Structure to design on (243 residues):
């Protein structure tokens, strides 16, 4: 089997390593089958899509809608590299799955409107499959409504006409979409469990996701509902595209 590629952007080692472990767990892949590249640490370089079964992009501290002048040199490099990769991914309809920051990269590439209108605090929310989502193979094993971990400062306000909405939320309308048949993106985090999101809450305290003094309230918020279904999305993606 050709390996999958995970593109990561977290500079903090503990949440970065835990993210990789969670992707391994929920995809069912071994370390030699899921190769991680930490883009915050080194340039991506040339990627030959024919060498891979598919590509994942994890979450991270970058926001696609930040003003250009506010973005660090690293963020600008990472965004340019991912955008260049997406040129070929979308042209070929190559298997791709972007989570949280990944939805911003794909949305920005396709001209979506991305801003802070539908930001969500770190928490568990209920989201719902659309009719197209119910028919999509990645969501076939999920109920119509399911719980998911969220926490983001920006979201898609207007989807591009090329996108198919698969999952919607009450407070954040665009929770998952597809381009073509094989390019996917989620606003929620399908790779997380409660321990993983708790690690991120502690790691990113002071980064503007919640107010000072709200650490314990935020840790309680992610235990409000059990999250039991979202990991199956990553497993379904892996089964479908492993080659």
């Amino acid at each position: 089997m050709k390996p999958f590629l995970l593109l990561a952007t977290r500079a903090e080692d503990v949440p970065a390593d835990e993210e990789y472990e969670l992707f391994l767990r929920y995809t069912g892949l071994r370390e030699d089958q899921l190769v991680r590249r930490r883009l915050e640490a080194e340039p991506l370089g040339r990627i030959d899509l024919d060498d891979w079964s598919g590509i994942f992009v994890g979450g991270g501290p970058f926001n696609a809608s930040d003003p250009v002048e506010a973005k660090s040199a690293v963020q600008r490099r990472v965004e340019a590299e991912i955008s260049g990769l997406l040129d070929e991914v979308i042209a070929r309809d190559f298997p791709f799955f972007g989570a949280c920051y990944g939805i911003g990269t794909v949305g920005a590439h396709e001209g979506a409107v991305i801003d802070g209108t539908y930001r969500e605090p770190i928490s568990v929310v209920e989201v719902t499959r659309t009719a197209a989502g119910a028919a999509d193979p990645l969501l076939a094993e999920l109920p119509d409504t399911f719980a998911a971990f969220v926490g983001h400062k920006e979201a898609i306000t207007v989807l591009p006409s090329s996108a198919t909405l698969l999952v919607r939320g009450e407070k954040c309308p665009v929770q998952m979409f597809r381009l073509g048949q094989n390019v996917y993106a989620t606003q929620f985090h399908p790779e997380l469990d409660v321990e993983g999101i708790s690690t991120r809450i502690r790691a990113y305290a002071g980064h503007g996701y919640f107010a000072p003094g709200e650490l314990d309230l935020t840790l309680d918020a992610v235990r409000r509902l059990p999250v039991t279904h979202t990991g199956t999305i990553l497993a379904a993606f892996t089964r479908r595209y492993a080659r």
Summary: Residues 4-241 form a domain with the Rossmann fold fold (CATH 3.40.50.880).
